[in-house]
């Protein structure tokens, strides 16, 4: 079985690494803050003390970090792993980053003789635990396919979108859909509120209708109570929508509803909802509509 | 079993009446154009020649017609059924009409001593055939519950929302969600197109992701081919969104993404897509984004 | 000189009637609340006690009232003036009402043998005092021109737009421009605020630039202080924009920025700014942008 | 009198340099393509053959170039002027560039011991010729004021906004107002068209109303004829609005109408209107509204 180095043991990375271990891969993990490593050690994964240790003599090195800056620092920063990785080790970034970052990193890696793949995922920490992520791939096709076994251990579906950056582009596409769906649910509920319809009943109606989705199910309780423990923090959706609109500026996509929704998320950010779940945009719209929290 | 008169044997009404018949109700049907009645006659339903015949001595009279004007004409127009119905017959309008129309008709009925219920449905003709509609009720609660057996023969779920007009309001809420979901899918696909991602793959990704919905499944082929045989005609969605925004004007709902989406549907209307499926709004957005049909 | 009956001695009507008097017309005025009539009496205008008195034996009868309902009541309500007016008296409504109301009233008048003109005005009470209104006419062209002397006494420009309702349509067009200009000024100032630019300087820049307008001059102080004594109440602009979007729904106009601006005015309405000047939409946008009042 | 070096003899730069010359300054000019220099030579300005010649031993060096890249190349590129300029020569960039570029360049200059000022202008080539530009300044206040005589020779008003970048920020603010005003005029005219009102009359009404502006006067003929020779190219307004929305993403400005307008300009870009005047957004909206060119 392949030897896998895995950097980033957050909410997503830890269960993903664990699934690789369960599938029989030889997994070495690394995390900057060490307290997250102990439970994995107990489950039998090898823990690396340094970035050098996590990457050397591996078949595949995976990064799963929180944003563009974190990935850039780990890969190409001072003491970045790109200095220590040697072909045929394959570098796979599964973080959600901008396509520009994916393309930039793959370029740097290529100059160093290493093939890099962007393979961000669609799915929550729940899906990471259950191994039911959807993996969105960009980069060299043959290389991508050569590590299909690794992806299958973490996800239910692996989709190859094309050259480097394509995986990150696909991720933006799906996040646009998430952002606008949340806005749509919120606007529906605002109208319902103004109609004095029962919110619980309206949510039940939505779950019975053709627009029902697992996503709606995840958010239902938050919307009902107007309490928003973060599964997908509003600030992250705000950042992603900003990134999407930035890409649209460059490629000429006309995205009127996304642009309108972005204004609502921005207002929510300005009203101290950044660390709440993205569903909090509903409360922003309620507030703009003059509806007091019950 | 109850005797049911059913007016309007369109794409929705015919299978609904048939399901009532199958459930053992004594069903008499009426339709303005008579050619739609023959298949129902062959299946054992009673066919009424006149509006008078379809309503007299029934427990429940159901109307399922195409729009506000059609319902108003059949119920309160010249020779309208309200002249012939007598309590305790219950009048149930299952058409999609504006809340104002529902409230108006219930008021007229009440003056004539008849109880009227608004009970529009969520679901396509497919759901009508399978008896899996979601029924959205408004009007007197006791009366509504007294005919629960009738609703259960046509739908999988029956939700009671409150006084007259509430059913029609709930229907607008669900249609807002449909309209904005379609817009969201379209904007996602526009961005994907501009990213040169494969459309089929992107649709597959959406269907695997948390935003997957039966609705997306229904539209997938149309979006892939940019061919739009109407399941839900764009002009109807345009009309419903117009109605929604009209209601929002009156009740102060802030609906920025809905308002933005409405502009796209309006442009599609202006570009001769009114009789296509609502999914054609995707082609409008592609055109605005400068993407030629392949 | 022509004999003119003038109904409605509000902020606009009173100075308009006075200008007619100064120009030598024989002016009789009427107002529901009588205290507004005394100053006009002192200046030599004839005061009518009843609606009958203000309309009988006049060449022209002008109405200048606050909204559609008020005009409808005075013209076609119980004891409405349409019962007492006889050709060749010409009825001229100068109120801001919907095109539908203008067309309806002209139709009723025509049935009674009377020609009605819609002639709403562009301009504030200041312009009414100075006789520098812009008069926007709809209705029979010959009749409209036959009373050009009357219009010239009140306005600097008289524009004839076509059949009945056209004057009211033109008025909506100019009010769309007002509403979106106010929104544009507000968004410019929000951006400036977030850039930490001095608001007074930015307003001075605008007044020196090609976009400078008298309108900007009128609003400058309000915007600087975030204090909004109503010259044009926000609720009226909200109503007019709602009317505009309602007309756009019927005629297929694509108005994306107007639709977006309407959401901001609606939020301002929901935040108790309805009786402030329309410029208060700036404070709504500041609030959404997280900027505290200084 | 001060010795001024002036780089960039385009539509704006040439008349600005000429006005400096007329005001008695000792002006040396430079332009990459030499044919634009001959007319200035004939009028008595000194022509520099090289960048070195235009900057050495000057009191003030002005750049007036087409975009960020051009300014960066001339100032900090290979053989850029920053190598040759020595204090106390003051470097003044009057081009329209992003605040980030202004701040970056001023930082580089400072490291080289040179003070740089950003002083973009509001006003067309007409205003450049007449010396009626509005000059928007950012940078060291004392330095800025020390060259007030230079600015007064080119503009009617000089406004100081604060530290480096502030001038460029103010320029974005005024361009937001231009962009949304153009959109507002266009939407007003679209509604008018759908009302079948005469376009020329409607434009006359606007010019008589409180929203009248010089800007409206400049665009009137283009709008009337739907012919758009570029005074301010649509692609530049599109770029500026993109830059504005990019800044808003960073600073949290809520700009709903600007965002909506940007979609219309983007669609116009996608429909080959990039080199037309920005007023062409009107034709884009007409097209979306289903109105054929007459």
Task: Reconstruct the topology from this structure.
The structure is a homotetramer of 294-residue chains.
Chain A lengths: L2 E5 L5 H10 L3 E5 L7 H5 L3 E2 L3 H5 L4 E4 L4 H9 L13 E4 L5 H13 L4 E3 L2 E2 L2 H6 L2 E6 L2 H6 L1 H5 L2 E8 L3 H29 L4 H10 L5 H12 L8 H18 L4 H15 L10 H8 L6
Parallel strand pairs in A: 1-2, 1-4, 2-3, 4-5, 5-6, 8-9
Antiparallel strand pairs in A: 7-8
Helix pairs in contact in A: 9-12, 9-13, 9-14, 10-11, 12-13, 13-14
Structural summary, described in words:
The structure is a homotetramer of 294-residue chains. With 294 residues, chain A is an alpha/beta fold. Chain A folds into two domains: 3-162, Rossmann fold; 170-288, N-(1-d-carboxylethyl)-l-norvaline Dehydrogenase, domain 2 (Orthogonal Bundle), CATH 1.10.1040. Chain A is 51% helix and 13% strand. Chain A has helices spanning 13-22, 38-42, 51-55, 68-76, 99-111, 125-130, 141-146, 148-152, 166-194, 199-208, 214-225, 234-251, 256-270, 281-288, and strands at residues 3-7, 26-30, 46-47, 60-63, 90-93, 116-118, 121-122, 133-138, 155-162. Chain A has a six-stranded parallel sheet, sandwiched between helices. Chains A and B meet through β9, α9, α10, α11 and α12 of A and β9, α9, α10, α11 and α12 of B.
């Amino acid at each position: 079985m392949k030897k896998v180095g895995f950097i980033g043991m957050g909410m997503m990375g830890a269960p993903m690494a664990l699934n690789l271990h369960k599938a029989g891969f030889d997994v070495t993990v690394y995390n900057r803050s060490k307290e997250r490593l102990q439970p994995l050690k107990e489950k039998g994964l090898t823990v690396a003390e340094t970035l050098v240790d996590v990457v050397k003599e591996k078949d595949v090195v995976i990064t799963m970090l929180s944003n563009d800056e974190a990935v850039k620092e780990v890969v190409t920063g001072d003491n970045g792993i790109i200095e220590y990785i040697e072909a045929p080790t394959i570098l796979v970034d599964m973080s959600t980053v901008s396509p520009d970052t994916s393309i930039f990193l793959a370029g740097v890696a290529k100059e160093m003789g290493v093939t890099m793949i962007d393979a961000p995922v669609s799915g929550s920490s729940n899906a990471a635990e259950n191994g039911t992520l959807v993996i969105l791939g960009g980069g060299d096709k043959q290389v991508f396919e050569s590590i299909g076994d690794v992806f299958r251990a973490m996800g239910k579906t692996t989709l190859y979108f094309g050259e480097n950056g394509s995986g990150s582009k696909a991720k933006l596409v799906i996040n646009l859909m998430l952002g606008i769906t949340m806005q749509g649910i919120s606007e529906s509920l605002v109208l319902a509120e103004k109609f004095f319809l029962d919110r619980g009943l309206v949510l039940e109606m939505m779950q019975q209708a053709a627009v029902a989705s697992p996503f709606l199910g995840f958010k239902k309780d938050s919307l009902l109570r107007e309490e928003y423990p973060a599964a997908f923090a509003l600030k992250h959706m705000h950042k992603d929508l900003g990134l999407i609109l930035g890409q649209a500026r460059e490629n000429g996509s006309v995205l009127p509803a996304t642009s309108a929704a972005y204004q609502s998320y921005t207002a929510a950010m300005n009203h101290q909802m950044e660390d709440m779940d993205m569903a909090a945009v509903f409360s922003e719209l309620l507030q703009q509509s003059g509806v007091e929290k019950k």
